[in-house]
Amino acid sequence: MIYLAHIFIYPIKSLDGVAMPQGTVLPSGALQGDREFAIVDEQGRFVTGKRTPAIHQIRAQFELAERSVTLRQQGDSTGPTFHLDRDRPGLERWLSVYFGFPVQLVQNQAVGYPDDLGSPGPTVIGTATLKLLADWFPGLSLDNLRQRFRSNLELGGSDPFWEDRLYGDTPQQPVAFQIGPVKFLGINPCQRCIVPTRAPNTGDTYPHFQRIFATQRQQSLPAWVAAAAFTHFYRVAVNTRLNSGDSAIAQTVHINDAVQMD
């Protein structure tokens, strides 16, 4: 049986994640609390690992019940704690000093700030896939690859790349599947950026990461996969959105929920 093994949300885009026992899927398709906040500069541009490698050395520990985050720089043992709502100016000052330029924290509780606005649902990957990816890169662990690719829903009980069944040849040919009570559409294999090439805690680049990944991914592509969905092979995990008829109310997925395909 394929089942939901792990749930992760990333409350502030590009900062550390939080493992969850359950996740609420909002009417938008987004996981509640995932990328709810984002850091932006004075021009309104996102401050993320794509443009600002220094962000990798911020450690963020969230206490979601208290709506708080403790920030520290990698290597420091302690740091200040901020309430995400009441202490926003202090949080922004800390981040501005750290980056060396003014930033603000913006918030979107309905859909968050996903990279793919057309597929705002949780990204899906298999634990077996992450284990195989770790084998491609000597010195990197399963947890390290998990942090690099930052997927939301991790599936257990599957072979590597089982999740590649969850999309069609084009985004116009989505695949319907269900996790627990929630009905999703798998849209396409997620195109990756520069972030996975860097160590999550330091920002150090793994030599030739993207080339190694693309070569191995092409060679490992299962025979049954929708190969037309791969304009290049630096892709892994599945972008999703809700089935259009199931977006009126929030629904909940739990660890150990079964995964079913229509």
Give a written overview of the molecule:
The chain is α+β, with helices and mostly antiparallel strands and 262 residues long. The protein has 2 domains: 3-7 and 116-261, no CATH class; 37-107, no CATH class. It has helices spanning 88-99, 127-136, 142-149, 209-220; strands spanning 3-9, 18-20, 22-25, 37-41, 58-63, 68-73, 81-83, 103-107, 124-126, 153-156, 175-179, 182-191, 235-242, 251-254, 259-261. The strands form 5 sheets. The protein has a 4-stranded mixed β-sheet with strand order 2-1-10-9. It is globular and about 50 Å long.
Gross geometry: globular
Reported for the largest beta sheet, the result is: 4 strands, mixed
Strand-residue fraction?
Answer: 25-35%
Q: Which stretches are low in confidence, meaning pLDDT under 50 for 5 or more residues running?
A: none
**C-alpha-based Rg, rounded:** 18 Å
Please bin the fraction of helical residues. Answer: 10-25%
The helix/strand series, from N terminus to C terminus, equals EEEEEEEHEEHHEEEHEEE
**Class computed from helices, strands and strand pairing:** alpha+beta
Give the averaged pLDDT, no decimals.
96
Amino- and carboxy-terminal Cα gap:
15 Å
Q: Compute the number of structural domains.
A: 2
- Counted by DSSP, the helix tally is 4
- What's the β-strand tally? 15
Strand order of the largest sheet: 2-1-10-9
